[in-house]
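User: Here's a chain of 179 residues. Predict its fold as tokens.
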Amino acid sequence: MASTSPAHIWFMRAAFPALALLIIFFHLLPLDTVPRRWAPPDLLVATALAWSLRRPDFVPTLLLALTLLLADLMFQRPPGLLALLVLLGCEYLKPRAQSYRDTGFAAEWLSVIAVLTAITLLNRLVLAVMGVQQAAFGLILIQMLMTIAAYPLVVFVSQSILRVRRLTPAEAETLGARL
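Assistant: Prediction complete.
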């Protein structure tokens, strides 16, 4: 099946929320009842950023917004704030996907680092302005750094197992003609 066929694109559009539900499920499992001194990486955010950079056609804006809003509700975060920030970050990266196709992984990773840092700081700032109780800054910083460190692994799993690869110029031209 060609990676630009409509059936494949719709299959991958269904695979993203399924993967998100799997990540949410394992994140909510009560495996340890003692509070941790570290925060795990936010794999859902890393996956959304990786798929937005690698194959923007697999994660349309509405699907991404609904999936991230569901994650906010399930994790009992302020509804919509982190979803909006991640959505803005993904939409910022989507038009740049074609330029990162020609550069190496390091340039892509640096842009993701910048977007993750902005998301984290803006989320913290908005919550502080609204007077919402927050986790310790060190814990948030650890989560951001763990997400940055996990990004190459997320890209590797997405590329090798889920076949979410960058578009070739011919595939991009085919999709551009279809749109």
